[in-house]
Amino acid sequence: MHRYRSHNCGALRETHAGEMIRLSGWCHRIRDHGGVLFIDLRDHYGVTQCVADPDSPAFAQAEKLRSEWVVRIDGEVRRRPAGTENPEMPTGLVEVYVTGIEVLGPAAELPMPVFGEQNYPEDMRLRYRFLDLRREKLHNNIMLRGQIIDSLRARMKTRGFFEFQTPILTASSPEGARDFLVPSRLHPGKFYALPQAPQQFKQLIMVAGFDRYFQIAPCFRDEDARADRSPGEFYQLDIEMSFVTQEDVFAAVEPVLRGVFEEFGAGRPVTPKFPTIPYAEAMLNYGSDKPDLRNPLLIADVTEEFSGEDVNFNAFKNVIMAGGVVRAIPAPGAARQPRSFFDKLNDWAKGEGAAGLGYVIFDGEGGALTGKGPIAKFLPAEVQGKIAEKAGLKAGDAVFFACDREEKAAKLAGAARLRIGTELGLTKTDVFEFCWIVDFPMYEWNEDEKKIDFSHNPFSMPNFDPEAFKALDLADEKTILGIKAFQYDIVCNGVELSSGAIRNHRPDIMKKAFALAGYGEDVLQEKFGGMYRAFQYGAPPHGGIAPGIDRIVMLLAGEENLREIVLFPMNQRAEDLLMGAPSAVTLKQLRELHIRLNLPDTKC
């Protein structure tokens, strides 16, 4: 028999009854039932109940065992007595009568128990991550992550993509976040950077003549933590394709993501064909460029209705005259809600920094739609009717209003839409609703610097006639700000999984694109010289995308925090409490790197 085990702790079934076997694992739980000891032995594969009674030759040893001790158990498999079976466990019809025990690794007193799923403070869970990972739910999430990555990899290969590896030590580049810098010992005063993404490398792979690239790519960004983003590193399904249009990218990526969500979604429906929503439409109808389509509510623009001469609601009119807008958020059936429903939403809006949420409640007394509420008296019946028509309202419904500058009104209306949908029970659960967001603006007005700047990815191809684009006058701000780009996001249940683009592969177009944002060719040469020079020697049209692995796993696992689907995450302060990183280094190491520290004065 093997030194440690003949079977794993998830393998035994009724067919093994009568066999002498050997198991090794952790003492998950130990119960004393009137002098009979029940030991739930756990390993990676499952749990098996082991029994030692006073007649067992190993009973004295069994009495010494404690939670999380690692032991080897020899014994005989037998059927559980009638009425004691546990059909929820794969091994629940059998147990092992213990004849021998060897302690392989005793455990000290536990700082946190493994049995059960109690919630513990983040710092404790991260400091003792090896214990946390023994817990069933987290263990299963990590295994799910690996299975999802395997599935993504297989699906990409099936679709003709080849897996490449790109450098980890590279040059610093301004890609929207801070770089992690690595000092060079051989080149004093110079630094490598860990890649924020393999963006330039994967484009260079296309320029080099390869056709369909993918990589489960590690990315490093020195940025603040969020629930859905690690402060240090994350992984993405990095993809690039040559000789493709935007629609070709969609056709390649959509079946991969749909297939993975169908495979691991536990039967939850997945959007059969991902709808394509223009950015401007998403901002108007959903108040967000990452709309949650499980919520059926659509926001309406009612600025014109509040601008009429017969409307005397100056609180909105004054904002409109200053360039603001009014957005209407429908609330079907809300007329049946108590007054507290409306008051709570108004208080919530104030907590978000808004003046509040005006509202109108519609009823149908006398056969005509009639509005009631704080601002209904300022709206003539005809205007109320137009608002009801635009927002798709009927008797028994209500409508809330967000009034502000366009960007702020969209943000408030979008958040209110989500809240109203949830409170009224309108938002679907247990589904995965995908969509593509397209037609992002290429440029935006930078209010701080009073100039036109890139609004998204500066390396995207403008959706504009190339010759007309090159001829644009730098002073033609209206035309420039109206240019759309071949940029796109993929969104699931209100979570942005990825941004992507058809790349600007023409040096002449790229040079003009940067010039329109106020950057000379010297910036291209200095910051992106490698890729810019490569494009001078024949670059194919190409495009790609990079869905986030962590966010995909979070959605499929039903988790809301990255910590629950990553093996060894950092805390909110970008600290690895288990390994003690970041840590101080020795003076010798600093001297080898020609670095002298200039630490901040902590006394200030």
- The SS-based structural class is alpha+beta
Biggest sheet details: 8 strands, mixed
Termini Cα gap: 67 Å
Strand order of the largest sheet: 6-9-10-22-21-20-17-11
Question: Portion of residues in helices?
Answer: 25-40%
How would you summarize this macromolecular structure in one to three sentences?
By secondary structure, this protein is α+β, with helices and mostly antiparallel strands. The chain has helices at residues 59-62, 122-127, 129-132, 136-158, 199-207, 246-264, 279-286, 303-307, 314-321, 339-351, 381-391, 406-423, 466-470, 477-481, 507-516, 521-534, 549-557, 587-592; strands spanning 20-33, 36-43, 46-52, 70-79, 94-105, 162-163, 181-183, 191-193, 212-220, 233-242, 276-278, 300-301, 325-331, 358-363, 370-372, 398-404, 434-438, 443-446, 451-454, 487-492, 495-502, 542-545. The radius of gyration is 31 Å and the shape is globular.
Structure overview:
With 604 residues, the chain is α+β, with helices and mostly antiparallel strands. The protein has 18 helices and 22 strands. The strands form 5 sheets. It has an 8-stranded mixed β-sheet with strand order 6-9-10-22-21-20-17-11, sandwiched between helices. Strands 1-2-3-5-4 form a 5-stranded mixed beta barrel. It has a 5-stranded antiparallel β-sheet with strand order 12-13-16-14-15. The protein is globular, with a radius of gyration of 31 Å. The chain starts with 19 loop residues before the first strand and ends in a 12-residue tail after the last helix.
